[in-house]
Amino acid sequence: GAITGFYALLGLAVVLSSRIWAGLLDRSRGGEALARLNALLGVATLLPAVTGAWPVVLASGLLFGGVFLSVVASTTALVRHNLPQALWASGISAFTIVFAAGQIVGPTVVGWIADGPGGLARGLVFSACALWVGALVAWRQRPL
Predict the structure, then answer these.
(1) 94 partner at 20 to 30 Å CA-CA among 4, 57, 82, 112?
(2) d(CA 83, CA 141)
(3) Are residues 14 and 70 in contact, defined by beta-carbon separation less than 8 angstroms?
(4) Model-level pTM?
């Protein structure tokens, strides 16, 4: 029951995420939205690495569900705010390619780390750090 509830709440957070972050995505012209969302996703990823306490794991799932799709939406918003409409498709395509490469490399590296000493917790810490590095890079992106 607890696991079903966890995933139901995570799914609800995903559904609500577009409403939660719409204002930020509309206002952010540079990389601020991507930076904030990556930073929050890093927190959500780190929480289960530091404790297995049910309330913390639940909070991690809610935060993760409420953020992860908005990270992708923030890249689309960045393109739409900074490129002429004629270039939106190519800009979004470029972000999609980079995201796809990250979806191949990231889980492979984290799986390799998690299979070593420290297990999954070490992999989650690495993931959180990678997200925070991404947040720092995104924070430096100014509007074009």
Answers:
(1) 112
(2) 14
(3) no
(4) 0.90
